[in-house]
Amino acid sequence: MVRGAREAPPGVPGVFTVLAFPDPMTPRPPRKFTAVPFEYHQEIELDIDSLTNLGAGVGRVAGWVVFVPYALPGERVRARVHRNDRNCSHADLVEVLSPSPDRVEPRCPLFGDCGGCQYQHLAYARQLEWKTRQVGELMQHMAGIGFPVNPCRGTERIWNYRSKITPHFEHPRDGVMGAIGFLAVRGRSRIVDVPRCDIAMDEINAELPEIRDGLRRRASEFRRGSTVLVRAAADGVTTDFKATVTERVGDRSFRFLAGDFFQNNPFILPSFTAYVADRAAEAGARFLVDAYCGSGLFALTLAPRFERVAGVEVSETSCEWARRNARDNGIDHAVFLTASAEAIFAEVDFPAAQTAVVIDPPRKGCTPEFIDQLAAYGPSRLVYVSCDPATQVRDLRLLVDRGYRLCDVQPFDLFPHTRHVECVMTLERGQPE
Known about the structure:
Strand order of the largest sheet: 19-18-17-20-21-23-22
Strand content: 25-35%
Distance between the termini: 52 Å
CATH class of the domain at 125-157 and 260-429: Alpha Beta
Radius of gyration: 24 Å
CATH topology of the domain at 125-157 and 260-429: Rossmann fold
Shape: globular
Largest sheet: 7 strands, mixed
Helix content: 10-25%
């Protein structure tokens, strides 16, 4: 074995040539650190060939996978290893030796320390290309489904689009408050102080200095750390979780509690909801069920395309907001039903063969029990909206196994410069594969 080489881990042939010896002054490694194939803080050079769906660059050293956040495909980089797992290593970017032509200057000075954004250093057109590719790869790797993915739809407004942010702060010490912001890229609890956020709406940034100053003036009142809500809506900016706010989507207005869930990029919502409407109605369905209706976003924006609409929710509070929003918008052919999780479709009396169902579950996706109920009801068409394509693809496999056929996959970029992608999958009733 040559000097500066280590034995390869099982299953990887040959040896690993050490590209930089560990510095004797390197900080002591964590107690559970495994020093194979690399020492703690050992620096290595490698070529980056892809990105993970979490936004990290992926490269290999003698076949061994190394993840390097903020490194881009096509680059050669120097990276410092901080963790070795069974099948891969994780390293911090030290230097870009050969930059990608797609690398751009980040707009935010906190990029790389604040964990809010992952892609400010990547040209926007390439962000869309990688998000498209990652949806396809998830489908293939997680569900064994090869299917063409439509190019991710972007937005003209790629900065100052978020209508809600939730900064955090730790327990003030001796009446003094520390950082108010977001979790750091590395470190499980360190908060990066964020005086302004370049992806938050201008209205939020205009109010943020006073909000932060107010928290610091009240530091002695806090007995623990907390999360702050800052939401911009048609009524202005609020920090009150219980405040009633109004959001407009096209010619519809929606009222809801500021702390409740509502899509947080109002600028793309008209085209986004119009696309969902087209997919739900294109096969001629007469009835619509919005299975996770919340305050009625999809049920009410899609209502003109259907004879009757039913929104279903497990939360009576959300259903009541949806009913109010239907009245406010003059929609009288939509009903909103509170249903138990065990019998979500029990009160829906639409004929399944003429019904489309829109699903927009939380990030964790649908439960197996919900999938079973949905398949038992058997609507002719499904439009599955998700903020997490990984859980969506998991559910896709279950739906295909229960007789649904995938007919369209369309990613949307609701959150430019971040790893997040919203995806709309359209399925129709068919035969099991």
